Amino acid sequence: MTMKIPPDEYAERRKRIRKRFFITVLIMLIPIFFTGFFVGKSFSAPKIIIVPEETEKVEAPIPQEEEQSKEETSVEEKPTGKVVYLTFDDGPSRLTDEFLDVLLEYDVKATFFMQGNNLKKEHLLESVKRAVVEGHYIGGHSMTHDFHTLYKENQFVSEMQETLALIHELTGESPHLVRPPYGSAPGLKNEQIRQQLVDAGIKVWDWTIDSQDWKLKDNPAQIIENIKHGTNEDKEIILMHEKTQTLAVLPEIINFYKEQGYHFAIYDEADHFVLNFQNDIRL
Ligand SMILES: [Zn+2]
Questions:
Q1: 87: part of which helix (H) or strand (E)?
Q2: Are strands 111-114 and 83-91 parallel, antiparallel or unpaired?
Q3: Helix (H) or strand (E) holding 26
Q4: Could you tell me the sign of the dihedral formed by the alpha carbons of 200, 86, 249, 240, in that order?
Q5: What is the DSSP letter of 151?
Q6: What is the model's pTM?
Q7: Centroid of ligand 1 to alpha carbon of 49 (angstroms)
Q8: If you write DSSP's letter for every residue of 224-268 in order, what string do you get?
């Protein structure tokens, strides 16, 4: 006895079989499709990575520049409020490195006025270079430091030019600022010398506070007293020397100005201001 399938049911079955076939094929195709998709994706991945990389490369210099300008601002200590310039004369000396150590420890920049006959001493050359590398300014303080030679024999300008050239030779810097030994008064009262300085493009700085440190070997506490007593302006330029007694009280001097809210600045040629006892605005 054969089961006779009614034609309706038969068509229905065929329909179901076909449906199952399509579903099976579909199920088999899905993994293939996804594999292809992911493989394709991973192959095109470098493109996606390159794009952000390139974006990063474009963006990278911007924050770097921002950081740099921030750094420059902190180094220059732009005179926004009270500002103090620590200046040290007569170097380089056997103490220069120790001065640099203290300045480095307190993160303070200074201005050095160095003497030609000391700049010629071979064992001090590294200290001179180090001062520049660590962000300090080096100006000239003559070759001989001799009052008579400088001011009576009219050797001031030529000695300063020689000193500045020496500094350039040693450090690669081209400073134009000098400090006259014993100050511009009375030394630079001579209009002829001042005109020579103007012609040579040399600037002259004296100071606002004389610490008198050079004569206080046995009384370094008095150096601090002199400085504290003299401090009453928003801009102070302190005259000091590379002396043992000065080195001993330097941390206290730095702390005093920090407590008083002063910023420590170094001389900036682009931001020069007149500071000479002759009140010559050309210098
Ligand atoms: Zn001097």
A1: strand 83-91
A2: parallel
A3: helix 7-59
A4: positive
A5: I
A6: 0.72
A7: 62
A8: HHHHHHH--SSEEEEEEES-HHHHHHHHHHHHHHHHTTPEE----
Instruction: Specify the 3-state DSSP secondary structure of 36.
Output: helix
pLDDT tens, per residue, the chain with 283 residues: 445 555 566 667 666 766 675 666 565 655 554 444 444 443 333 333 333 333 333 333 444 444 444 444 444 444 459 999 999 999 999 999 999 999 999 999 999 999 999 999 999 999 999 999 999 999 999 999 999 999 999 999 999 999 999 999 999 999 999 999 999 999 999 999 999 999 999 999 999 999 999 999 999 999 999 999 999 999 999 999 999 999 999 999 999 999 999 999 999 999 999 999 999 999 9
241 assigned to active site = yes
Measure the CA–CA gap between 160 and 145, rounded to whole angstroms: 10
89 C-alpha vs ligand 1 centroid, how far in Å? 5
Q: In the annotation, is 8 catalytic?
A: no
The two tokens of residue 11 are: 């068509």
